[in-house]
Write a structure and sequence with these properties.
By secondary structure, the chain is of the alpha+beta class. Helices cover about 25% and strands about 25% of the residues.
Length: about 120
């Protein structure tokens, strides 16, 4: 079983989703509001595909990070969710299949679009 940390967008690459898969034996179970890589976890949910036991932790890269930086007296642009920073922290760009699954089932972005 893996914990999959999901960064819904990166600066200058807003269409891509970045993920970091971590074996659940090496990290405690993620909780909503907990801090990961200086960001706040916005939502935690089991994989919608019931065949998998993975857990998704969606990270609030703007608000959680902004609050953390304010505590440190830094600007939100000092260190950010740029692609270089994400890769440095071990995040990788999700494949097309993973991106589609995450957008539809985890982030539920398809429900936001009203069909005419």
């Amino acid at each position: 079983m893996n914990v999959i940390y999901v960064v819904p967008w990166a600066i200058c690459e807003t269409d891509s989703i970045y993920i970091k898969k971590v074996n659940s034996d090496t990290v405690p179970a993620p909780e909503k509001g907990a801090t990961v890589d200086d960001w706040c976890i916005r939502n935690v949910m089991p994989n919608p595909d019931r065949r998998s036991k993975d857990i998704y932790a969606v990270i609030d890269v703007y608000n959680g990070y902004k609050e953390s930086l304010n505590d440190k007296g830094m600007s939100v642009f000092s260190l950010s969710n740029s692609v270089d920073r994400l890769e440095e922290l071990g995040y990788t760009k999700a494949s097309e299949t993973e991106t589609e699954h995450i957008k539809k089932k985890v982030l539920k972005l398809d429900k936001l679009v009203k069909k005419a």
